Structures are given as C-alpha cells and as structure tokens.
Design the sequence.
C-alpha cells in the first residue's frame, strides 16, 4: 500500500509517496522510539552516576569528594558495566523509547486537529500539541522511569543489597508489595516535566523548520 515517507516526523504538508507496508504514524513511532532507546542506553552511565551521587549525598551526608572522584571510585570498585552502565539500562531504554515514540506519533495529529482542515498552524497550536503529546507519553511510561531510578538508587542504600535485578521482576515485586498504583508514583511531576520539555522541543523544531521553509531556505518537500 502507498504511504508517506517520513523525512520530517512533524509536518505532513509536503511529502514523497512510495510503496511500503507501514503507515506514517507507525514509522514515526518506530523511528523516534528506536533513536531514543539507543541514545538513552548510551548515556545511561551518566544518568546512573547522577542518581547514585544524589542518593549518596542525601542518605550518608557524604559524596566522596567531587563527582569525578565519586564516579572513579565506582568504576574502580565495581567496574564500568556493573557499576554504571547495566543498572536500570533496560528500563531506561524502554521508558525513553516508548515515551519518544508516543510523543512523536501523537504530536502531528494533535496539532492538525487543533489547526482544523482549512486553518494555518501557529505557535499556539504547536505548544498545545507538544504539551498534550509529552504529558501522555510520560504518564504511560512512568513505571519504566520509576524502575530505572529505583534500580540505580538501591546501589547506594546503606545495606548495598539490590532487591531489584531487572525491571520486569521489579515491577512484579512492587505490585505485589505495594499495589499496582505504586508504579505511578511521581507521575504528575514526571509528566509535567515531559510536557514542558516536549512543547519546547517540538515548537522550536517545528517553528524553525516552518519559518525556514517559508523563507525559501529549504525545499518545500523536505519533511526532516
């Protein structure tokens, strides 16, 4: 079947048609999700270091000197993979991948629905669509972000005995001990941050691209 090539995952006004089995929304979801999952897996050591540094400082009142020396001691004591890279990486990849896929798949239809069939998109439409898409994406994926942080923070507990070893069994343990609703602890601040982040990201991207196209700086069919 015929579908639109997603060179630009935001704007469906000027497109190239080819034969392929996936719809534009599905391709948006897959492309954004895969990119976010890969990139978040790559920077997981930095995120893990941040969480462990914060927990260490708050629970023990000591951060082992500077952030650099703290990270060096972790690598020396536990190794880069076990100490910083592996903790929470699965939950990180799934959470960021799904949230990004949902945000990019939802943004364009939300924006177009606000614009209407014969209207012209404005920055207000972009902001509202970005806020909505970001909020939905991060609310849905709250359990993954919760598990990621928990799996990293538990490494700095006074007992230093991790009780969650992977995010699937971790979710099961949390539901059994605290109930299903506990998976969504922190959903409001997380989704609020995600909504603001997505609105700023997509307004900047969509707005700049639209202005560049209107000014003739880019070709009309490019959808990057």
Sequence:
């Amino acid at each position: 079947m015929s579908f639109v090539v997603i060179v630009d995952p935001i704007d469906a006004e000027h497109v190239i048609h080819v034969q392929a089995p996936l719809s534009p929304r599905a391709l948006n979801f897959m492309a954004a999700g895969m990119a976010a999952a890969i990139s978040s897996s790559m920077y997981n050591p930095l995120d893990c270091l941040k969480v462990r540094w914060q927990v260490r400082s708050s629970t023990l009142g000591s951060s082992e000197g500077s952030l650099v020396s703290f990270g060096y001691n972790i690598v020396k004591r536990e190794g880069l993979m076990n100490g910083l890279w592996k903790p929470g990486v699965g939950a990180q990849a799934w959470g960021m991948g799904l949230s990004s896929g949902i945000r990019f798949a939802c943004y364009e239809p939300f924006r177009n629905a606000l614009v209407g069939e014969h209207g012209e998109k404005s920055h207000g439409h972009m902001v509202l669509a970005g806020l909505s898409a970001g909020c939905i994406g991060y609310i849905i994926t709250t359990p993954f972000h919760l598990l990621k942080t928990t799996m990293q923070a538990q490494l700095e507990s006074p007992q230093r005995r991790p009780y969650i070893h992977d995010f699937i069994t971790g979710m099961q343990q949390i539901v059994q001990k605290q109930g299903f609703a506990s998976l969504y602890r922190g959903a409001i601040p997380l989704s609020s941050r995600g909504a603001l982040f997505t609105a700023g990201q997509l307004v900047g991207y969509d707005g700049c691209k639209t202005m560049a196209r209107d000014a003739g700086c880019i070709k009309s069919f490019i959808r990057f």
Summary: The two ends are 23 Å apart (CA to CA).
